[in-house]
């Protein structure tokens, strides 16, 4: 079992994470982690803070001579903008944020006590954890990519593009978008919203390929892979929706149109010509790519602040403005990859067990051989 | 902490559930549980089996003189159609089902070993567990209702209807639908699909009202209420998508249109004029109704079977047909209420603690008073 | 991951258990379970109730054609003495029992609401669950036996006896004792205490053999096998102490006397001449037998009742007497085997993974080969 | 729910911990944490390393203006002796340590990869976490102290001493011992063992006072407080035994001698004249002091090394010697206090819920009032 905890506030000294349960013998490349941290910070429409922070990870434990040794892996990410203690108090909660409910729940009168932890800054840690999970998955040739499929209502068209094609386009795109034409229109919308002191949302898609069939299970509801992935994706700040494969559009389709017929070829094994299920049947991977999409709401910190109420005086007020982004959809996608990578790595460990890379690989290969019979 | 396990196969002798962690002193009405079990089985478009089974719960423990005593509550639901051992083997997996991936994962050659547990029959237990959770929530005036908002692409229009209005319409509707006109069209589509040996999907919505602010938390990703609800809903068979509040439609909106401005009135406390957030901000309830929607795929057991492959001979074949439903969207909604009720009850217990109803209520009221200051 | 919940009261209709997470393909013999249930009920010094109940298990799910299929295994054990609703209330808590603290915690005024679940009757379920876990362990040639090493201060001497010798003596002994002479003295003490309306305690030992090295881990405190075993054993009613290997007697020894030197022989691998560690080093199995002992207090239901206080009137009173045992040490040992078997099975699954017996065995054998290099 | 993860190696740069689930509004005094860290390092018989390290905690998150804010609390403890990457490899496992089983499990050939994490250095983190838990308990007037009751077979006599008396003696003692005469003899034994290149073990006792009745529960085996405490204590390095109250000595006593009769006095509530149960009945606190004892084995790193086998060459060898302690019993007691404090704090939160100190206290006081009726 793989698990992790993260800690740290938006303007605290450090973000800290501990990833526990990693097998021994995995070569961990901190530069790959840093690359994912950069991807999280990039993306057209991010706030100037993203230029302030240029996140780099420091691994404090669990690794010796570049290899994991089985112990917990502690991560540190320095906040450049450390000044939490000095930052001003505020008492007007921002609609769409944790501010109001958080202040009631934790009985705080300074909303900074809420927003510092509720901030999506925390996801840097989750990206770092996910990036290590990903380095494990790479050993099994499992890969993930996210791409932006909608910003401000503008849809990207990536029909017919392979995983590789999408990936290479994403890595060259400012918006992690696989459709250049749509991207231009998206950028225009972001610029427009920015000028008007407003923000825009969108949709990203995560694709995971190279999965063996049988991760997750139908035997108990909390073992289903869709349970775990939907939960993980929904725990990303600003996410309001998740779907797999055809997702909401199944509602307008007949059963005969939806289900992916099964074929077999020697050497290749079972396969499908369609992937409407998004790689998941019965709460398990079916061997096809997992395809999931999630909706990201427009960021709630607006330069033109919304109506609110002062929690102390109870008088009408305006929500406080903090420096913020116009569009975070590409970043949310990168975080989506990370949390999905963690869940998949965990399911791999549950299925294959093992305490060293050699052992886990041997177990994995035994299974692959078994199901190829 | 509240937790449960369920057990039982579709054609086994019994379904069994154990709900652990319930406080003492709660009056539990088994007839209320049976009523929810009936609601799960009803709905236009269900298979004739639903007439065979008329589920009734037997509570085997945890209750004395109609009151919970703190111990685990064991539930038994008898299967009328008990004959698992006699049912024929089959080896052609049904696309859209757990059959193929399950057989590979668990190394079985008889697909009945998979489908018996993967079947949605198991959800009867989850409905029973949810119904008990609901009886706890009722003590805090928290209520849930689901309604069908889309079948076969036909949308119900319930704009402007109150919780009470929707509830009363749903309880009189064959399809748990709040829009009579849409319902007629939905029924026509179900009939048509049935005649053509096909199935239809749709979308249900769950509304939860009476929630205090501050259930769930932003402090750690796995404490977020959207994480838990999205996970629970996604663990229902056939669900391919979940959304909260505006859901996917946030992608086409500006931040200034999305966020729910905050108001305050003495006696009433903080409130909103809109509920685009679906009752959740920062991974917590904000005091408004939770509103979530989920997409249900058309059932994958088709009378006109799809192409498949025999898992033993590896020869092309047709997927086996088992007696089945044409449309399960209303049932899925009832299950959605149940799993949501469980998650809310659990979060209530986490926040308020307590081992007896008296204690939990006292703690709850103390908090309500605190946040009203 | 293997997990379970149990439910049921001492005089309720049924005891119920659900064991979740078992691999598929394990042949499960209910007669072996029944045999363990009988062993739990036997033992010189048990109450006449043990003759009333003759526990037999009914498996309601998770098995088809005698083989596990991967789904949760639900167990039912009928209580012969079902009459909980009719049993009289009482309000004088018995010292040594859950009665008083339970009534305060759960806010009950009838102590029967407490004792019905607190009773050790519940352990029948844990023995059944443990017996299934044991059938899994048997596939890996892991065996457990408990024996009584002390009753009423009389010590059994089993120095020099092999696992097999102890086992064969235990199975022929009324007290699960490996020393016939000591046993005679123990029986005399039990008889004497019984005549005087009193009860006696003692110590049992559990030995587990056939373990691979490396179950459990030092990498995080909650992964240590001694953490899990000590916790599980301590959760048995009436247990007041647990020790591994030399246990408390390490306090009087030097380091040079305590640690088990390491030897190696081709074919045999690493081995020791002593086993002072009781098979556990660094929170892991080291390949030697696990040896643990636990102290069982004399049962607190005395025929000569102790001083107490009526919880309603607050007046001094005498603790209620319920039909009870004089000595439960042999039974406690059988329960000890069961809970230990569960923990070991769980650690085996964590280390070796797998969803079918074939897969788990293949992974296990791969590891055994790896560490023999 | 309170939880934590720790990370870090003995000669790594830092030890890291994250404590998640703490309520908001608790004033946290880092000097109190540092004091506990010092207590862990002190004690006659510790190695010279203890002079090298003088542990101080840095809190990186979860606190603002000296108060907890609800978010995870990350802790950093700097290792002065950071040089893990440079330290020599070794291949001769030390009997009594994790070395051999760890190398087999994690497939490592350099035993330093094992010992660095298996080392008790890690417990500094657990002491820090426990010290924060303790600051929560202090708000409810719950206190803990440990004292050494046996070293090298020499028993301390503290019969009749109150909690306060023991505590004040412990804080002035080099060995955390409440019996000065015994202490002198213990020191002589430590000196003697040290001269002979050997080590000694012993027994410590933890006393917890101020507990409300009803922490933990009998309703499910994994909720019992003895389960949790025995597990936590057993997870401390070198612990081979745990007992509560009379512990192993119950085996030589009659029921009528063992159980603590119940009395009542207005204003004082229910109480006992004896505490043979060690404060636990039915898996719950009964309101009396929890008293537990644990046996600490003599440290396995001996200056006169034991026989071993080189894991690479498989040739007989001698176990490697690393700078080490002669006696760690007092330290183990301090760690025992810390892990017990964590478990109690967690059970307090489970029972009383609450997200702020104000809320938790209000809930607590409501319960105290309820049970005083």
Task: Offer a concise description of the structure.
The structure is a homotetramer of 373-residue chains. Chain A has helices at 30-41, 49-52, 99-106, 112-118, 123-138, 163-172, 180-195, 225-234, 255-258, 329-352, 357-371; strands spanning 3-7, 14-20, 24-27, 57-59, 63-64, 67-69, 73-78, 143-151, 154-155, 202-209, 239-244, 263-265, 269-271, 280-281, 284-285, 290-296, 307-309, 316-318.
Order of helices and strands of chain A: EEEHHEEEEHHHEEHHEHEHEEEEEEEHH
Point out poorly predicted stretches of chain A.
none
Q: Figure out the total of helices of chain A.
A: 11
Return the average pLDDT of chain A rounded to an integer: 94
The proportion of strand residues of chain A reads: 15-25%
CATH superfamily name of chain A? Chorismate synthase AroC
Assembly of the depicted chains: homotetramer
Q: What is the CATH T-level topology of chain A?
A: Chorismate synthase, AroC fold
Helix content, binned percent of chain A: 25-40%
Radius of gyration of chain A: 22 Å
CATH architecture of chain A: 4-Layer Sandwich
Which features characterize this protein?
373 residues; 18 strands; alpha+beta; four-stranded antiparallel β-sheet; five-stranded antiparallel β-sheet; 11 helices; homotetramer; Chorismate synthase, AroC fold; 34% helix
Describe this structure in words.
Four copies of one chain form a homotetramer. Chain A has 373 residues and is an alpha+beta fold. Chain A has one domain (3-371): Chorismate synthase, AroC fold (4-Layer Sandwich). In chain A, 34% of the residues lie in helices and 21% in strands. Chain A has helices at residues 30-41, 49-52, 99-106, 112-118, 123-138, 163-172, 180-195, 225-234, 255-258, 329-352, 357-371; strands at 3-7, 14-20, 24-27, 57-59, 63-64, 67-69, 73-78, 143-151, 154-155, 202-209, 239-244, 263-265, 269-271, 280-281, 284-285, 290-296, 307-309, 316-318. In chain A, the strands form six sheets. Chain A has a five-stranded antiparallel β-sheet with strand order 9-8-10-16-11. In chain A, a hairpin with a 2-residue loop joins strand 14 and strand 15 (284-285). In chain A, helix 1 (30-41) packs antiparallel against helix 10 (329-352) and helix 3 packs across helix 4 (112-118). The longest helix of chain A has 24 residues, at 329-352. Chain A starts with a strand and ends with a helix. The mean pLDDT of chain A is 94. At the A-D interface, strand 1, strand 2, strand 7, helix 3 and helix 4 of A face strand 1, strand 2, strand 7, helix 3 and helix 4 of D.
């Amino acid at each position: 079992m793989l698990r992790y905890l993260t800690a740290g506030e938006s303007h605290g000294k450090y973000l800290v994470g501990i990833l526990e349960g990693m097998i021994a013998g995995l070569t961990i490349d901190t530069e790959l982690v840093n690359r994912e941290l950069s991807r999280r910070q990039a993306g057209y429409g991010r706030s100037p803070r993203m230029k302030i922070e240029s996140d780099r990870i420091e691994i404090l434990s669990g690794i010796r001579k570049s290899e994991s040794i089985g112990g917990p892996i502690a991560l540190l990410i320095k906040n450049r903008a450390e000044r939490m203690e000095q930052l001003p108090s505020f008492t007007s909660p921002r609609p769409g944020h944790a501010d109001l409910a958080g202040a009631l729940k934790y009985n705080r009168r300074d909303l900074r006590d809420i927003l510092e932890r509720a901030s999506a800054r925390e996801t840097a840690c989750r990206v770092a954890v996910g990036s290590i999970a990903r380095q494990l998955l790479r050993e099994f040739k499992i890969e993930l990519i996210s791409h932006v499929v909608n910003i401000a209502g503008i849809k990207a068209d990536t029909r017919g593009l392979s995983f590789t094609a999408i990936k290479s386009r994403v890595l060259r795109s400012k918006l992690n978008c696989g459709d250049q034409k749509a991207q231009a229109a998206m950028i225009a919308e972001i610029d427009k919203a920015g000028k008007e002191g407003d923000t825009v949302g969108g949709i990203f898609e995560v694709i995971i390929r190279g999965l063996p069939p049988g991760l997750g299970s139908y035997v108990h509801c909390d073992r289903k892979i869709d349970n775990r992935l939907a939960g993980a994706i929904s725990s990303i700040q600003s996410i309001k929706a998740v779907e797999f494969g055809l997702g909401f559009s199944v509602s307008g389709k007949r059963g005969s149109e939806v289900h992916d017929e099964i074929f077999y070829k020697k050497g290749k094994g079972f396969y499908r010509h369609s992937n409407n299920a998004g790689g998941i049947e019965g709460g398990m991977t079916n061997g096809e790519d997992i395809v999931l999409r999630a909706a990201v709401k427009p960021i709630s910190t607006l330069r033109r602040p919304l109506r609110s109420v002062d929690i102390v005086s109870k008088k009408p007020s305006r929500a406080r403005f903090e420096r913020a982004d116009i569009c975070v959809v590409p970043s949310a996608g990168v975080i989506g990859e990370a949390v999905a990578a963690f869940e998949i790595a965990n399911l791999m460990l549950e299925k294959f067990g093992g305490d060293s890379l050699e052992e886990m690989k041997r177990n994995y290969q035994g299974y692959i051989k078994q199901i190829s019979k």
